[in-house]
């Protein structure tokens, strides 16, 4: 196995410094990998796939059918080479994430109450009130602790700054029903099973306590008069692409997984049907979109929610996490304003920067975007999952012209960003180890305090040269190792012993 520093001088932002020297926090892993037999990684990958299939860690592919006409499920490809983040970098990221999510929750409370940010002229009123994600039914509704997004997934990318070093940027905020945390947890279990000695050598901060923090956050959001709240996870059902995650989190927290048909409203409270009779529900961790929550208020044809739920919510007799209407804060048309929100609500400068963004409904921005389509990434403001977007440098002339017409027809429906030179991470692919672009989704929990586990889901674009990391479009995942603050490097003699033990263990298992 070839060492990283002999192959990947193209990767300055994850493994290498600007001077093409391997970064300190990757040296132990580099030394370990250089000692492994050439077929070790392929065998470990086969083992991982076998275990994932046995456990049932899959996602449904919408629109895809097998030969019998049934929906297909796939494994999310899992890469064996971890993404490692040193403690000081994570500490800065964590501060920035806490700041950002705090400001976004302040914004959500504001737009459904006083709308001070509109009155101050920082955001135009129609950007809020005419936005498809704004829920008029939430105006004036008070929620516990003024927290609307209890679980946020913030997508982070790394790209070169003006000095040629790596800098973190926020690419997207996910505040409605962010997914992926189950893969973060299962990836860690798999890596600890396959490579146990590496964890001792690296002092990797744990993530296994996330379900405990999640349950703590959900219980903290319960109606104030509830002493011992009952929490449930509301799922659309087994055909949802993230159903594995819904079931996994319910099991890990020790709470019930329910569907809409399991819930009913009586006397202005929500109950679930059980074999022992009705049980009152105090907190609903919903994995159902707003439109399907309550057929009496939103989509009348919905069978996924519970009739009368929003009335109980308005009365303060049940908590919904995340709150209805949070989508207004993660819509891509609102994203460019988040740095201003931080200054407006917190009186602070943003710690994490946005990616520079052109707002196409502005005439000057639209003119620039139309003249530079081949160099930009164009995104629908309501798009998700890597759909409804144009990556200019990777698109054909016909695709660019199609987007030009869409922009001219509805400029307010799009934003544009430069094509960042995203950092890459060595990834084990069919041809061997090769660089692939990555992002990071940390999961931020807002209850009585804002907290998170150290790490997140690193997503990787497995197609060579691709910038799209979404699993629905061929992306995979990696384990994310955050090194613990103050941990001392393993002594060389101890490390040598560990590496030899790992090599012997690998040989025995092979």
UniProtKB/TrEMBL annotation:
Domain Circularly permuted ATP-grasp type: residue ranges: 82-461
Domain of life: Bacteria
Matches recorded under InterPro entries: ATP-dep_Glu-Cys_Ligase-2 (IPR051680), CP_ATPgrasp_2 (IPR025841), UCP005522 (IPR016450)
This protein's name: Circularly permuted type 2 ATP-grasp protein
Organism: Rhodoferax sediminis
